[in-house]
UniProtKB/TrEMBL annotation:
Keywords: Membrane, Transmembrane, Transmembrane helix. The lineage of its organism: Bacteria, Pseudomonadati, Pseudomonadota, Alphaproteobacteria, Caulobacterales. It comes from the Bacteria. The chain crosses the membrane at residues 24-45, 82-100, 112-130, 150-171. This is DUF1440 domain-containing protein.
Length: 181
């Protein structure tokens, strides 16, 4: 008996199955949640080592949208920061999923893809997003901490998100190719 996606694929010219959309959405959400949580654990931990409380870190994230007033908002602006953090990670995961789906990036090993994607995430966030946001300027990071930030994004956050996304893209491509035979 044919599965649901095989029946849907019988229509001429159909290139995406209904379950594939659900799978992509679930993988993007899961990748955003897991990657975002790991990134946040790192950010909270490293800032705690410098004496910065977790609420202040979340308010700093919220200040990208709210400006300096985020630091007077208490827990509510901390929640805005938390939501902003996960929203940005979801955008990262969705853009990566689209890039993998529509280009030859799917041929790369997920760890290599993740290294590049994590490095790109760090660069885009720190050289484009944060400077264009309302986040108050902070002093440059010490070189050791800057290196650690890059490593965490390049070797942890990016690869985990890419592994989850690339697994979806490779699996869905195989399903579509096997139905077309």
């Amino acid at each position: 008996m044919a599965s649901e996606w095989e029946v849907i694929m019988k229509e001429p010219g159909m290139t995406m199955v209904r379950n594939e959309c659900n799978s992509m959405t679930l993988r993007v959400v899961a990748a955003a949640l897991i990657g975002g949580t790991l990134d946040l654990i790192y950010a909270l931990g490293v800032n705690a080592a410098y004496g910065v409380p977790p609420l202040r870190v979340l308010q700093y994230i919220a200040s990208g949208l709210l400006g300096a007033t985020a630091f007077q908002g208490g827990g509510l602006t901390g929640l805005v920061g938390l939501a902003s953090h996960y929203a940005l990670m979801a955008i990262f995961a969705a853009v990566l999923a689209l890039a993998v789906r529509r280009t030859d990036l799917r041929r790369l090993h997920p760890l290599l893809l993740g290294f590049g994607a994590g490095t790109a995430l760090f660069i885009v966030m720190n050289l484009i997003i944060v400077p264009l946001s309302q986040t108050p300027a902070i002093p440059p990071l010490p070189l050791g901490r800057l290196g650690l930030e890059i490593l965490v994004h390049s070797l942890l956050v990016g690869p985990i998100v890419a592994w989850m996304i690339a697994g979806w893209a490779v699996g869905s491509r195989r399903r579509v190719e096997s139905v077309g035979e």
